[in-house]
Specification:
binds glycinamide ribonucleotide; alpha/beta; two-stranded antiparallel sheet; 7-stranded mixed beta sheet; single chain; 6 helices; Rossmann fold
Amino acid sequence: MAKEVLGVLCSGRGTDLQSIIDAIAEGKLDAEISVVLTDKPDVMALKRAEKAGIRNVCVNRKEYGDRESFERGLVSELKASGVTLVVLAGFMRILSPYFVHEYSGRIMNIHPALLPSFGGAHAHRDVLAYGVKVSGCTVHFVDEGMDSGPIILQAAVPVLDDDTEETLGARVLEQEHIIYPKAIQLYVEGRLKVEGRHVRIVDR
Ligand code: GAR
């Protein structure tokens, strides 16, 4: 069977990307990353890809007038690299219906909270402000809404009284690095069956 070809989209430091690179190197994830794309220049994610010998390209959002032309730039890079699964790993932009249709059912995202609670760009801040006792992370398929697609895997962590965004973020990130490669491997194995909002994990 042909290997799943991943295109990973990042905006910053790229630790989720690193967890995927490491899982492949350790034989826990049977896929290849053909390209890493970022929307900003000079970010750590590009350096991590470079170090791992992975093609990496900045599709600089600032060089494109509107969102659609920017996304056409992303899609043309993904197609040129033969990508079959788009993996959003700390990519801090909302994708338009155009992009989502191009890779319909083949885009995954990780969000640093237990969706459907605390979506958006400031999950840890919002969790701490609300006073919930448990948070975590969610891997989900991407649909046209924000943080709204069918949920694949989640992991929970406690929220402690003296947590800051940094301490909570670090605790959540540890779990992200475990569940994201796992979720991608389940996809690679053809074990994710999407039925409406539900993602069933089936035996092969
Ligand atoms: C991660 O916590 C990820 O869940 C979050 O950005 C961080 C990226 O870290 N993503 C979102 O908030 C998406 N809305 P990283 O750059 O070290 O992988």
